[in-house]
């Protein structure tokens, strides 16, 4: 084993059963023959969703039902974790230590839920605290399972590992100080040949109050650790072989992509690929660390590697992806020419409200089209109304649309690709409502009506990737 560090992240179905946690241990054991290993884990499969659900449910219950609901949830989650622990930890002493930690956490969770129920309120700060318990429990199972097979392992929350964030609950961002704190907190363990098992997704602000890193936060945790520990690679280990050329639920002949550039991966993640998240690419890209996506069931397979170099392949297009649950907001009569700084005001309001604008298109000085998530429609319309005191005639919303993105480094400099794509759209009786080409020149993205979207994806995949 050399002194180089590799970060392994396990999430989703990979942490669904004790049997899969044994697979995690086998992968860690093999990687330790070559590298120092840091592990990042998500909550047990489905637990985060259950924590969100019980928080919302209990805040709406009558006071008389609150304590029974909290106890029932305690019993259900305890049973799930005990079953998993029994499947992957043989040593009775190690098993008991893990269960004592889990029971203590669950008791704290039970009391918290009772408080939420009596207050009849759940805000982002409370929600972050509640859902942090999923990862806080899973680290004790995975570290216990590693200790059970003779690998020294130590469980840490994201905060204990050195990830300190701002106080933007549910979408927290790390502070610059983490470059010092991650090394200070983890290197002593790594140097003692101990495997840190770090809770993904969760962190804390400077006061120690629990925060979460948003969608894909566990992957982001792994990438942050890799960057600041100067790791040679970060691996995202799931129940899929790697990154596919399309959603296999839509396109049966989706192919495994062996190599992607950071730019290609970022665009894929932004426009709907579920196997990875755009935020986790950023730290790896900044530090030029390869990201590998691979299957827990095929640990010897290379999966998909994401690197700086853009590999141009014969097919030109590498992937077609689709983003659901989006809407177009058309603003008419903005009058930008007559109102200096108006766009700055609008987009500043979007930022203040945490609204992510996915696509923008302006056909003239008096018309602007935006694509946002469906969940942001009401907030976006309010932001536009706040930013535009005058000069606005009408706001239209189209919520029956989807974004399709065609991605591949080979498109840059290749003539006629866009024309072929648009012909396929027309041949499938669809019309392009909005279009944008990324500044990276590795993607062409456009919006079509929802009812045509899957047929368009299939046709583009067949034309550019299958043939």
Output the keywords.
467 residues, alpha/beta, Carbamate kinase, VC0802-like, 2 domains, 8-stranded mixed beta sheet, 6-stranded antiparallel beta sheet, 13 helices
Judging by the overall fold, what is the CATH architecture of the largest domain? 3-Layer(aba) Sandwich
Distance between the termini: 44 Å
CATH class of the largest domain: Alpha Beta
Characterize the largest beta sheet: strand count, sense, and whether it forms a barrel.
8 strands, mixed
Strand residue percentage: 15-25%
The strand line-up of the biggest sheet is 3-5-2-1-8-12-13-11
The count of β-strands is 19
Number of domains: 2
Gyration radius (Cα, Å) is 24 Å
Basic shape? globular
What is the CATH homologous superfamily assignment of the largest domain? Acetylglutamate kinase-like
Q: What is the residue-averaged pLDDT?
A: 91
How many helices does DSSP assign? Answer: 13
CATH fold category name of the largest domain: Carbamate kinase
Helix content: 40-55%
